[in-house]
Each structure stands twice: as structure tokens, then as C-alpha cells.
Write a structure and sequence with these properties.
alpha/beta; 32% helix; 238 residues; three-stranded antiparallel β-sheet; binds ligand BV8; globular; 9 helices
């Protein structure tokens, strides 16, 4: 039997129990900040220090010893290791918790908090320190030309061709910890359904914007629902 192919999409909810903020929960980032002030190219052009500060705080929190992958991240790494077919993990998250849990077949469609992009040379490099207007580009040495390597609103997400190719051929699409508010990620379930093959599953704390598009739903904390789902898939499929 052809080994069946799995595409997984994760959002901020999978990292909540690791201590990272979500965006649209009552205690989320957008409850105390405006997207227009910190997560658009226009915001960066208008007040780069404010945008750098927003990401410097999130980077420092991510690098604190209190933040580590949780059972949901580890379960997805187990699925990649033990599933006989293809597993592609597409994350909207900019943290590195999937990598730290052991996931390798991974696309950060919204970029990565621990990388810097140079506006002068285009170089992308690992970056773990605070970023300021005197930070030097590791590739070209220019000063004050760095931005966080993250996709802001109004910018094109990364590796979309590769993502749509995988969605067009998958047998299982699983959406985990996302509210289904942000496009194009929120449209992936419809893409998967359109291939005529995919069984679609939503694992979330609560019903998302796109809940009616999923064949199967399990609601509860990711650290409970994801390991249970992975165990079921590995033992008896779907
Ligand atoms: C683009 C990086 C076009 C920054 C982010 C229709 C089609 C296409 C675009 C649009 C469209 N309509 C509007 C748009 C524009 C826009 C958009 O979608 N706006 C929304 C607000 C309406 N989209 C864009 O701008 C995108 N770009 O379309 O470009 C283009 C075309 C040609 C050429 C150039 C450009 C770019 C979007 C990317 C923006 N960047 N992130 C950063 O992180 O700072 S998106 C941002 O939202 C976050 O990264 C996050 O990943 C993403 C989605 O949020 P979620 O992950 O879902 O988080 P949220 O808090 O919303 O939900 C958390 C969920 O977890 C909840 O459901 C909660 O119940 C659950 N949960 C909580 N705790 C737990 C849990 N679940 C399980 N266990 C728990 N313990």
C-alpha cells in the first residue's frame, strides 16, 4: 500500500503550554498591542525601535530556561520518526520549539524569531541577541540594516509553492492550535479537501473559524489531544 502522506499545520496554541503567548486569546499579544504598530512593514518603517523591541522581548522570553518544547511538540516529532510515509509540518509559529523537540521536515511559513535578515545584502543569519539600530549584519558587516526574519502582515509567507504541493497530495491534514483567522494558512484545510483524498482533523482548545471544514475535531489542551491523536494514528491509522 502506498505510504499515506500527512500535512500538519500548527499555530500559537501548540506553544501556549510551553509558556509562549498566543495572539487572539484573552491574554494574547493582540489584546495589548496592535498589529499595525508592531507586525507590518509600515510599522517598521515608521518606528523601527518599537518593532525591534517587540521582537527582542519575545526572543528573550523564548530563550529563557523556562520555555521548552511540550508533549505536543514531542508527539509530532515522534510521528515524523515513526510514520512510514511522508510527514510535513508547516508552522505559523516563529519559535524553535518544533526543532528542539526533534521535528526535521518543517516549514516556518511566517519566518523565525531566532534569525535576522539584512536589508542591505539580503543575508539571513541565526540571531539570538537583542537587535538594535547598531546591530551588525553577520554576512556583510553593515550597521543598522537588520530586521527580524519574520513575515509581517501584507508580506508573502515563505515556501508557499512547497506547501501547496504537499496539500494537493496529502491523505491527512491536521490543524493544531490555530484560530483560523490568518490567511493564507487559514485556507489550507480547503486546499487539502480540494485534493479529493484528505481526511481533515482539527485539534484545538476550542472551535476555530474554520471548524465546519474539518471532518474530525478534538478539543482540549494540545499536550493532551496531540499525543493521544499521534498514538492512535500510529497504532491504527484513521
Ligand atoms: C499575505 C508573524 C499577500 C509575525 C504572522 C485573504 C487572503 C490572503 C490574505 C489575507 C486575506 N484576508 C486578509 C489577509 C491579510 C492577512 C490576514 O490574514 N489578516 C487577518 C488578520 C484577517 N494576511 C497576510 O497579511 C499574510 N500575507 O496575505 O500576503 C501577498 C500577496 C502577494 C504579495 C505579497 C503579499 C501574512 C500573514 C502572516 C502575518 N504574520 N506572524 C509574528 O509572529 O509576530 S501571523 C500571526 O497570526 C502569528 O504568527 C500566528 O502564527 C498567526 C495565526 O495565529 P494563530 O497561530 O492561529 O494564533 P491565535 O492566537 O490566533 O490562535 C491560537 C489558537 O490556539 C486559538 O484557537 C486557541 O483556542 C488555541 N489554544 C490556546 N491554548 C491552547 C490552544 N490550543 C491547544 N492547546 C492549548 N493549550
Amino acid at each position: 500500500m502506498k505510504s499515506r502522506r500527512i500535512v500538519i499545520l500548527t499555530g500559537a496554541g501548540i506553544s501556549k503550554e510551553s509558556g509562549l503567548d498566543t495572539f487572539r486569546d484573552a491574554d494574547g499579544l493582540w489584546a495589548r498591542l496592535r498589529i499595525e504598530d508592531v507586525a507590518t512593514p509600515e510599522a517598521f518603517a515608521r518606528d523601527p525601535a518599537r518593532v525591534q523591541d517587540f521582537y527582542n522581548h519575545r526572543r528573550a522570553n523564548l530563550l529563557s530556561t523556562a520555555v521548552a518544547p511540550n508533549a505536543a511538540h514531542l508527539a509530532l516529532a515522534r510521528l515524523e520518526a515513526e510514520w512510514p510515509g511522508e510527514v510535513l509540518l508547516v508552522t505559523q509559529n516563529i519559535d524553535d520549539l518544533h526543532e528542539r523537540a526533534g521535528s526535521g521536515k518543517l516549514i516556518h511559513m511566517h519566518g523565525e524569531l531566532l534569525k535576522a535578515r539584512c536589508l542591505a545584502c539580503g543575508g539571513v543569519n541565526a540571531w539570538r541577541a537583542p537587535m538594535t539600530d547598531v546591530s551588525l549584519c553577520p554576512s556583510c558587516g553593515a550597521e543598522g540594516t537588520l530586521r527580524v526574519h519574520v513575515v509581517w502582515f501584507g508580506e508573502m509567507p515563505l515556501e508557499m509553492d512547497r506547501i501547496y504541493e504537499a496539500l494537493g497530495a496529502c491523505d491527512l491534514f491536521v490543524s493544531i492550535g490555530t484560530s483560523g483567522n490568518v490567511y493564507p494558512a487559514a485556507g489550507f484545510v480547503a486546499e487539502a479537501r480540494g485534493n479529493g483524498l484528505a481526511h481533515t482533523v482539527e485539534l484545538n482548545l476550542e472551535s476555530s473559524e474554520g471548524h465546519s471544514l474539518f471532518d474530525e475535531h478534538h478539543y482540549g489542551p494540545a499536550t493532551v489531544e496531540v499525543p493521544a491523536f499521534v498514538e492512535r494514528i500510529l497504532s491504527r491509522g484513521w
